[in-house]
What does this fold into?
Amino acid sequence: MLYFTIAALVVILDQASKRIVLNTLSRGEPREVIGSILRIKLSYNPGAILGFLSESRPVLLAMTFISIAALIFFSYRMRYAPVLKRVSLGLILGGAFGNLVDRVASGSVVDFIDMGIGSYRWPTYNVADIAVTVGAVILIGGFIFHPEDESRESDYPGTSSRTGD
It folds into this structure.
């Protein structure tokens, strides 16, 4: 249940933030938050990361649906994994679903967070992108630094998968 709660919260935050930006800004009109380092600037991305596959909406939709199905499958397989790993899957699922809502509704993902220094700018992104990135980093870190945590017994008090505990 934690997994789906986290995913739902991400979708709600993502869609709410996008609606606020859509209702208050015109496309390309930046609003400085921290000088020119952090700005809110409405843009639309018809593709994936960095506009990749921008002319292939059906491919992107299929890839997103497959990714969401895989995440749901992995959430079931990891139902006894440590909480942080389950939270990471919820973040990734929520981010994928948040951007899917945009892609289905309008064909493009709404991006609005613009960071950089001077003319050196990071590609514009949104709350869903943050959730996917943070979730992926946490998940990868968990597998690298704590591979032994994958035991099904790890969530049950008083049991341990490690010998000698």
